Amino acid sequence: MEETAKLLQPVIHSLHVDRALAERAVRLALPLLSEAMQHPEYGDSGFLHIVVLDPAVTPLDGPFECAVLYQHSIGDPAHWDADYAAFALAKAELSWRHGLDSHAIQTLTPHVVRRRDTTVWGSAVVDGIVVGVSGAFPCFDEMYAGVVAMCVRGLAKHKAQRQVV
C-alpha cells in the first residue's frame, strides 16, 4: 500500500501552490459559489464539486491522480442526484491533458477528445492553473472554476512576493 502511494507521488510539485493554498483559494471563492447555489437559474442541482490541480504537475510527471491537490463539495454528496465529483475530475483531467478550458476543447478541438473523455464542459485553465467544477450549468461551472483559478493565482503571487522579500 505504501509503495503504491509512493508511485503516485509526482517528482515535481509547485513551489508556491500546495494543498493549503488551494483550500484557501476555494474558501475565498465560497461566498460567491454558495450564494449562486441558492439560485436555480445558475444550476438546479443545488450542489457543486470543485477540483484544483497542482499547476506544476504535467501528464509527463505521472498519472492524473498525482496532479489533484484539493477537492471540495458544496452540499452533502449523500444527496447528489449525479456523481458531480466524477464529472469535475473528468473535466479537470481533460483540461490538464490539453491545457485548455474544457469548453474550448469540446467546441474548437473536438478531434482530440478520446472515447473515455467527458463531453460536458465546465473547467478553466488560467496560466496553467486547472480547476474543474460540476453541479451547475456548464457556463457557470466554467465561471466558478475560473474564479477559483484566479484566487489560486493571486494567492500564489502573494506567497511568491513574500518569499522574495
What structural keywords apply?
single chain, 165 residues, alpha+beta, Beta-Lactamase, four-stranded antiparallel beta sheet, 5 helices, 44% helix
CATH topology: Beta-Lactamase
Task: Report the helical percentage.
Answer: 40-55%
What is the CA–CA distance across the termini? Answer: 42 Å
Mean pLDDT: 92
Tell me the strand order in the biggest sheet. 2-1-4-3
Please state the structural category: alpha+beta
CATH homologous superfamily - what is it? Haem-degrading domain
**Number of domains in the coordinates?**
1
Give the SSE order as H and E letters: HHEEHHEEH
Q: What's the overall geometry?
A: globular
CATH class term? Alpha Beta
Shape-level CATH architecture: 2-Layer Sandwich
Q: How many beta-strand elements?
A: 4
| Uncertain stretches | none
Topology record:
Elements: H1 2-7, H2 19-36, E1 48-53, E2 68-74, H3 84-98, H4 102-108, E3 123-126, E4 129-134, H5 138-164
Antiparallel strand pairs: 1-2, 1-4, 3-4
Helix pairs in contact: 2-5
